[in-house]
Amino acid sequence: MLGQVSQMLMGIADSMMIGRVGTVELAAASFTGAVFNLILVGCIGLLQPGSVLVARANGAGRPEEAGLWLRHARWVAWTAGLGLAGLMAASLLVADKFGQPAEVVESMGVYYALIAASLVPAMLFQVDRQFSEALGRPWEPLAILLGGAALNVLLNWMFIYGRLGAPAWGLEGAGFATLVARVAVVLGLRGWLAWVRGFAVAVRAARESRITAPRVREMLALGIPMGAALFFEGAAFSGAAILSGWLGTVPLAAHQIAISCAALTFMVPLGLSIALTMRTGEAVGAGRMDRVRPMAVGATVLTCATAALSTLGFVLFGEAVAGAFSRDPEVVGLAARVLVIVAVFQLFDGLQVVFAGSLRGLADVKAPLAAAFLAFWVLALPGGWWFGVRGGGGLEAIWVALAAGLAVAAVLLGWRLRAMTR
To answer: Which stretches within 20-138 are classed as H helix?
Structure first.
């Protein structure tokens, strides 16, 4: 959970420090972040079979096989990362077709391209981190990631504002800082994996093995539905950012504040979900299906507890939180109202991702995919457009529609998990 929160700190730091530059720059970061996060979330799902298969090999006592899956997961990360980074960069050519404010589109070009390039190291770090976590070593990747987040803040301070003799690049400086920090954490984690004696057999197998078509097909058979399910969910929130841009620069900036806060708190149940996926896969590999339901129940209780804390924080301190991102009183006021809605759906957001994590550990990838499509593409996104844009409900109505989609996803996935662990 701490690792997932730390993963978000780079984006949070960018938003808070860019917000001090201006509202247009914050809105540009919002649109860029919406596109990047949509792709990254889908990629996390695409790469997640690596953690499941490594955990199963570990549960069965086969470290060489864990290394083979690491090798193939890295290959998928390189191949998909380069292709999707190029696709994201190319989409800049049609950015003006998404109905965003002209001043936002004009200001984001270099920043957008730098964030697109950072997708490759972000995916490579995800693969190696999942490998380490699946083998029971989560703390060292967390420390490396925290170091990367601190480096990002330092480089932001230097290259956004022109400190310590660095040029004041503003928005572009934030993109440069994020790219450098993401490359640094990949190099740091790769070096640590090679140093750990307990990983020697698996790392050597990863280095010496060859890519084989059957293993790639097995990974993609799980990864494509997993990635598609997370893509549908991420697309709903990225689509909400586009809808917010149709409402104007102030709603788009307020949406960036709200989504940054919601994404940060979401990292807690997401981290729990990833742990549950790995432990469920390990239990399956060890032939201990009796462990699956107790783990899912424990994760559910913990999710409810953490959601209650974040809900209380947003209700009591929403305006203060929004004020940390922007000095524009109109943006702060709107963001504070939206954070009250964010507080309401925290529970549903956490439950649906935890239930989906347990199902993925059981290699059930179809149910999360169907639930995500129905909840987000049939209900949430069309509802946000109908009530928020067409109906005049504004940004608040868009977020209410997202909350409704999350509630439907939580109910459907909870029912499916109960049936499979009966």
So the answer is: 23-59, 63-91, 102-107, 109-117, 119-134
Distance CA(43)–CA(35), nearest Å, equals 13
Backbone φ and ψ for 391, nearest 5 degrees, come out as -85, -5
Helix, strand, coil share of the chain (percent; to 5):
90, 0, 10
Joined tokens for residue 331: 């943006």
If one counts every other C-beta atom within 10 angstroms of the C-beta of residue 392, the result is: 9
- Angle, in degrees to the nearest 10, between helices 171-195 and 139-161: 150
The predicted-structure confidence for 175-229, as pLDDT tens digits, reads as follows 999 999 999 999 999 999 999 888 999 999 999 889 999 999 988 888 888 888 8
Tokens of 333: 């006021």
In sequence order, what are the residues at sequence separation of 6 or more whose Cβ sits closer than 8 angstroms to the Cβ of residue 165?
A: none
pTM reported for the whole predicted model: 0.76
Question: Mapping DSSP to helix (H, G, I), strand (E, B) and coil, where does residue 422 land?
Answer: coil
| Distance, CA of 314 to CA of 309 (rounded, Å) | 9
Contact 31, 100 (CB under 8 A): yes
The domain segmentation of the chain, as residue ranges, is 2-420
Distance, CA of 171 to CA of 156 (rounded, Å): 9
| Cα angle for residues 47, 52, 56 (degrees, 5° grid) | 150
